[in-house]
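Table S2 (continued). Query chain:
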Amino acid sequence: MNNGDTNNPAIADITTLVKLRFGTKDLKFFPRLMAKNPLMGNHQSRFRGRGMDFEEVRQYQPGDDIRTIDWRVTARTTTTHTKLFSEERERPVLIVTDLRANMFFGAQELKSVTACQVAAALAWAGLNANDRVGGLIFGPEHQTDIRARRSHHSVLQLIHTLSDVSEQLIYTPNTHSKNTPDTNNHTSLAKMLEDTRRIALPSSTLFLVSDFHDLDQKCEQHLFELARHCDLNVCHIYDELEAHLPPPANYQVTNGEQRFNLNTRKADLRQQFEQQFKNRQAKIQTLCGKLRMGCLTFETAKPILPILQQAYGRKKVRGRR
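Corresponding output:
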């Protein structure tokens, strides 16, 4: 088990994940789900009714409850007005983190470490928004479910699990080895999304943290079903070596079992490699637009908080000229 060893860059450092709590305090405009089910909770929805928060006053319409008539405004305007209230909704936050073998890759920082940082920051932001926060972590061998709760202990449990699973990647045998059983059916992105559908509650805010390297048509169907009932957000993790090949030269590369030579001097190879990455990026962006999902992109070895702050940070108020 990992005790927060900062000397091993391949393991998500617990201390670093905990410190992200302070950088998420400014995420005041954390995603607000417009509720789709009549559940009670802490977040406003587009539905209006006898909730706890006053929203506005408008002219009385046939069918309005006479108990909501604002007699002061009615007397002042000589026209009957009624008060409107915004209903409250509960919005548990579920953070699904991909820590499969494919995430154990990176030039300066592993994708698995970046993914853990993103997941931890989102968890702290959700807790700051007074949401119940839970997680679903898919590791190299099994998945772990962290029940959604509104407590620091729940977030700390999530953080420790993220760190432990990131450490497991170091000792996990190559899943493509001839001597190990085929586990693709258990570790595919489609299987991850299928399991998420069984766990995610309707009207949840759902974050998917992954490199989406095996995004296929089956995944798109699961995402479609999730987007129907949840506020779905994609956090795409990638490494610079996935976007561009290293400088022109001959490199010895390995998949953990075999070694072969990679000649990056070939212009057509470099172009094809970069185009494949662009195509995958475009596919993710198109799918997010089609399903109205939020989409954030994180590059390894780069700070994650500026991206989150730009997306969910405090809105700037324009000064008067």
